[in-house]
Amino acid sequence: MTVERFVVSDAAAGPYGLTVGPDGAVWFTLVHAGEIGRLAADGTVTRCGLDAPSAGPSLITTGPDGALWFTRMRDHRIGRISTDGELSDFPIPTANCGPYGIAAGPDGALWFTELNADRIGRITTDGNVTEYPLPTTGAFPSMITTGPDGALWFALNQANAIGRITTDGEITVHPLPTEAAAPVGLTAGTDGALWFVEIGAGQVGRITGDGKITEYPLPDRAARPHAIAAAPDGRLWFTEWAAGRIGSLAPDGTYTAHPLPVEAAEPHGIAVAPDGTVYAALELGEIARLGG
């Protein structure tokens, strides 16, 4: 598999989350610089600064309105950027809540996690926010995704569990079998299950709609897997942050390592385009494109 590297910033800016937008470009957050970036197919990079450089933009996704929506973790807002670069943002009622994960829901709204407040939030495209308290404290809800069952699923990093919330606010929590697994990344697979990575245990997990969990230990248990995305062919792709590597897992659990040709890459976010091309945000200031 070939790896192409695109310089999008210096190392201090912190490329972090990314997604393939409705325009076919890769949109990404620069968590330390307080910017949103766009990488076109030809390698052209455009960056747009937020009104607060310390906003801490973290995760980003395409909204139901065709714009890109992102969390502002450090100033506790939800941001929006249109594909032509128009920015807006919306406050969250709970102070210092630390919004982090974000995903488009099946109900035409965006759903997000609140790291510091033990809540799941919902925001409409006109900025109306509803919050749902979790039945746990200190859970540190991280990434969130829409499941094949029409509910939202999320990782509870410090509660060592995977959560599920219906669009009417009913919450279920599924504890993980491995202690201190610290799940972070989460994605809907093509097999009707949810797949997640355990940054604390060096494992990839799979959970079915009824809560059955299977865990797949990585060869390098110290790799610190961070984010995960499903490809159209059913393969799961994930970043191995501490190892400077991209890993992939076939639906049967077979693991393949994809080394990055650069030291101290620190891969964080990952996304898969409809054609199967894989993109990863490297904290050293690059986006890697894997294909072929």
Explained architecture:
With 292 residues, the chain is mostly beta strands. It has one domain (2-291): YVTN repeat-like/Quinoprotein amine dehydrogenase (Methylamine Dehydrogenase, Chain H, 7 Propeller), CATH 2.130.10. The protein contains no helices and 28 strands. The strands form 7 sheets. The protein has a 4-stranded antiparallel β-sheet with strand order 1-28-27-26, with no helix packed on it. The termini are close together.
Break the fold down into its secondary structure elements and pairings.
Blueprint: E1 2-7, E2 15-20, E3 26-30, E4 35-39, E5 45-49, E6 57-62, E7 68-72, E8 77-81, E9 87-91, E10 99-104, E11 110-114, E12 119-123, E13 129-133, E14 141-146, E15 152-156, E16 161-165, E17 171-175, E18 183-188, E19 194-198, E20 203-207, E21 213-217, E22 225-230, E23 236-240, E24 245-249, E25 255-259, E26 267-272, E27 278-282, E28 286-291
Structural class assignment: mainly beta
Question: How are helices and strands ordered from N to C?
Answer: EEEEEEEEEEEEEEEEEEEEEEEEEEEE
Q: What profile does the largest beta sheet have?
A: 4 strands, antiparallel
pLDDT averaged residue by residue: 97
Low-confidence runs of at least 5 consecutive residues: none
In spatial order, strands of the major sheet run 1-28-27-26
